[in-house]
Design brief:
Blueprint: E1 9-12, H1 19-49, H2 56-84, E2 89-91, H3 92-125, H4 130-133, H5 136-162, E3 171-172, H6 179-183, H7 191-224, H8 229-257, H9 267-289, H10 292-301
Helix pairs in contact: 1-2, 1-9, 2-3, 2-9, 3-5, 3-7, 3-8, 5-7, 7-8, 8-9
Length: 302
């Protein structure tokens, strides 16, 4: 499948080939997408309206909610349209742009989660220096660096994946242009080049997970040294929401991307649904239902 890339079209095989299940799935995923939009827009609006939430952690949370909205929007509308349509073709440019934006917002989420873990680390381990270290200027620098690294990751991975030739069939066995299904369509002589992009993406994901791990090791050591059981419980409650968000995103992402190519099975689609649609829907609830400040602001402005 070489030649002019603009003339190439792929066929997304979707979640299932069963016509009977497509309408119920459409309704289910439409509801998930609506809840995702309402929940994350609600978090952003609430933080902007409530002065008590104008802190570094909620500053990062608004950007996290923004990436959740964009991340889900890259995938969901196209998938919903395909569930009701017999024509599931996607152009080369459309597939490439979906891949680029998916990797960009996915990488940005990973970096923002790492930055939030660092902020929790400073707040719990160095409370007296928290305001000095995590200033408004530092917050903007950390967020800007997250988007910058995400853009570099997305640009390099997209160039590596779509800059070569496609020799495989035009069928993408997925509901969007994900990394592993697209890799299967590459020419064998280009495989090594594309693996460079895949390795770069993996390094970024693993790198952010190391930052999160080290931050929580330091937090755990500090919490265990606290004399008051109440202080320990409050510190653990503070981190619970973030840890659950990390577990959902990284657990499913590692399952999909860090197993050998020969091991990929149909469960990959289920895992992909979790981290592309279910996780963005759950994040606003994780950060609000277990958070007294958010619940108080919600009661005040509801």
């Amino acid at each position: 499948m070489g030649g002019n890339h603009t003339q190439i079209e792929f066929i997304l095989l979707g979640i299932t080939g069963s016509p009977c299940s497509q309408t119920p799935l459409f309704v289910l995923f439409l509801l998930i997408y609506i809840v995702t939009l309402v929940g994350n827009v609600g978090i952003i609006t609430l933080v902007r309206l409530s002065p008590s939430l104008h802190t570094p952690m909620y500053f990062f949370l608004t950007h996290f909610s923004f990436t959740d909205i964009c991340y889900s929007t890259v995938i969901s509308p196209r998938m919903l349209a395909d569930l009701l349509s017999e024509d599931k073709t996607i152009s080369f440019t459309g597939c490439m742009m979906q891949f680029l934006t998916f990797v960009f917002f996915g990488s940005a989420e990973c970096h923002l989660l790492a930055m939030m873990a660092y902020v929790w680390h400073v707040a719990i381990c160095h409370p007296m220096l928290y305001v000095t270290i995590i200033s408004r200027c530092v917050c903007w620098q950390l967020v800007a660096s997250s988007y910058l690294f995400a853009f570099l990751t997305a640009a390099i991975c997209t160039w590596c994946m779509f800059g070569g030739s496609f020799c495989g069939p035009k069928h993408i066995d997925h509901f969007f242009c994900d990394i592993v299904p697209v890799l299967k369509l590459l020419c064998p002589n280009k495989y090594r080049s594309e693996m460079v992009g895949f390795a770069f993406l993996t390094i970024n994901v693993v790198g952010t997970s190391v930052v999160i791990l080290l931050s929580y090791i330091s937090i755990l050591c500090t919490v265990l040294r606290m004399c008051s059981a109440q202080s320990r419980a409050r510190a653990f409650r503070t981190c619970t929401s973030h840890l659950m968000a990390v577990a959902l995103l990284y657990g499913t992402a590692f399952f999909v991307y860090l197993q050998p190519p020969s091991s990929h099975k149909s469960l990959d689609k289920v895992a992909s649904i979790i981290y592309t649609m279910v996780t963005p829907m759950l994040n606003p609830f994780l950060y609000s239902l277990r958070n007294k400040e958010v619940k108080a602001a919600l009661v005040k402005y509801s």
